Amino acid sequence: MDIKKITDEVSVAPQLLPEEMAEVAAQGFRAIICNRPDGEAADQPTFEEVEAAAKAAGLQTRFLPIVSGKVRDEDAEDFGRALIELPGPVLAYCRTGTRSATLWSLSQAKHREPAAILAATKAAGYDMAGVVRRIVNGGKTPTDTGDAKFDVVIVGGGAAGIAVAASIKERKPGLSIAILDPADIHYYQPGWTMVGAGVFDAKTTARTMGSLIPNGVHWIKSAVAAFEPKDNAVILDGCRVVKYDRLVVCPGLKLDWHAVEGLVETLGKNGVTSNYRYDLAPYTWELVKGLREGRALFTQPPMPIKCAGAPQKAMYLSADHWFRTNRLKDIDVQFMNAGGVLFGVKDYVPALMEYVRKYDATLNFWNNLIAVDGAAKKATFRVSEPDKDARDVTVEFDMMHVCPPQTAPDFIRVSPLADAAGWVDVDQNTLRHKEYENIWSLGDVMNAPNAKTAAAARMQAPIVAENLVADIRGGAPRAMYNGYGSCPLTVEKGKIVLAEFGYGGALMPSFPKWIIDGTKPTRAAWILKEQILPPVYWKAMLRGKEWLAKPEKVTAG
């Protein structure tokens, strides 16, 4: 038997035999559903034969035969009803298990998110791409034929999405372009570190999405449910279909707060905060100002995460305030890092270590936050040091700044666009999808080995625009991405270590050393982040003005 588990209550399998029923019962199943009509193949037992053996083994049965490739809406309803009426766990079977998996997917479409259905069937080895529109449509066959169509469709209206829309529009104004995004508000997320330090007001980091969409670009205010790249289609929530000639995918990543037990329940209270959320960054500053003594934890999850320096930025700016107010001697600063190094590019570590020593911060490597008890002020970490058995340790705290685990969004991870790890699979130089030549990706969601920062998106947007427009004109890719990313490490109020680097950790400074030496803390870098980069973001990057971001052209070899 080749049984594939979909959920704790439902599994599917290829053709079952009468002599296997005792083993089915022994594995804990209480009922079987046959979805294969009798007589499909000469060597196939009849359902009557299987049923007799099943009943002898104490199993309940249901016969719901489906002709291959012809799963009707009412068939899915019957299957769903059977799952309610039969005792579980249930094992459904057909010739290969595909019909049974399809019936389960459609029967659950009203009760589960499409991404969850696709993920469960994919994990069991079944591809539901052929019925994805029906899943998104609540299990019903769609009747809507009024599909929208654009030259370019952009999934995501964050920094990457709006910037690439503006850059494409600058290069080829006549294109019909649509941005798909359900959000009302667009955030300047790099500013939240400064909000958490009392430097920026949170309101200055937010603007309405409608005010930022480039002129002439359509905004479809809807979430994406699935992709059909072979049909050049994006399926929206509600089963509306948007077709494209070329697609750009940049929805950002998912902050997986629920991956840490107890975290969601205690965020924003009990001394637990995070600069990774607009509404919580001001609470960070409240906690920093209010803490007089005790232990402050700053956590960093496994990579990849957006702005890998942000967890320690929060630590440095908090400790700097306690240092300036003469409280640091009474506060135990602990950095809990799931990784094994302070920063991934070694050239910047010496300058950072000077501040670690200044603030008397303890670096705890290989410590990954797995649970929080906010009321008890306790955090549990899984310590996974190399060549040692993993162990769990519980640490008390008075304040804790959390960086949540991060993944690609669910609808990306289960899509045909994703690699094995769930990220959009692109060529790291051209940012074009490796399989689908009319698809590009940028920002945090794609799998190029670069830092996930706004500065990286600022550099990627014109590269994708250049290559997409070259493709429209029948040419080869014209621009190459070198992996550039930037992380302004706010080591104290008024000074920043401006880390700028590309693929392989190669240093890629934007300024001469006499202006800004990125390997040292400088006042000039602070001025850049505090006073220059915000207007560059709002007035240049999001408007297609490529300040310090002209794409590097491909040169003939």
From TrEMBL:
<keyword id="KW-0274">FAD</keyword>
<keyword id="KW-0809">Transit peptide</keyword>
<dbReference type="InterPro" id="IPR029021">
    <property type="entry name" value="Prot-tyrosine_phosphatase-like"/>
</dbReference>
<dbReference type="Pfam" id="PF04273">
    <property type="entry name" value="BLH_phosphatase"/>
</dbReference>
<keyword id="KW-0874">Quinone</keyword>
<dbReference type="GO" id="GO:0070224">
    <property type="term" value="F:sulfide:quinone oxidoreductase activity"/>
</dbReference>
<keyword id="KW-0560">Oxidoreductase</keyword>
<dbReference type="InterPro" id="IPR005939">
    <property type="entry name" value="BLH_phosphatase-like"/>
</dbReference>
<dbReference type="GO" id="GO:0070221">
    <property type="term" value="P:sulfide oxidation, using sulfide:quinone oxidoreductase"/>
</dbReference>
<dbReference type="GO" id="GO:0016787">
    <property type="term" value="F:hydrolase activity"/>
</dbReference>
<dbReference type="Pfam" id="PF07992">
    <property type="entry name" value="Pyr_redox_2"/>
</dbReference>
<protein>
    <submittedName>
        <fullName>Sulfide:quinone oxidoreductase</fullName>
    </submittedName>
</protein>
<feature type="domain" description="Beta-lactamase hydrolase-like protein phosphatase-like">
    <location>
        <begin position="2"/>
        <end position="110"/>
    </location>
</feature>
<dbReference type="InterPro" id="IPR036188">
    <property type="entry name" value="FAD/NAD-bd_sf"/>
</dbReference>
<keyword id="KW-0285">Flavoprotein</keyword>
<dbReference type="InterPro" id="IPR015904">
    <property type="entry name" value="Sulphide_quinone_reductase"/>
</dbReference>
<feature type="domain" description="FAD/NAD(P)-binding">
    <location>
        <begin position="150"/>
        <end position="268"/>
    </location>
</feature>
<dbReference type="GO" id="GO:0048038">
    <property type="term" value="F:quinone binding"/>
</dbReference>
<dbReference type="GO" id="GO:0071949">
    <property type="term" value="F:FAD binding"/>
</dbReference>
<dbReference type="InterPro" id="IPR023753">
    <property type="entry name" value="FAD/NAD-binding_dom"/>
</dbReference>
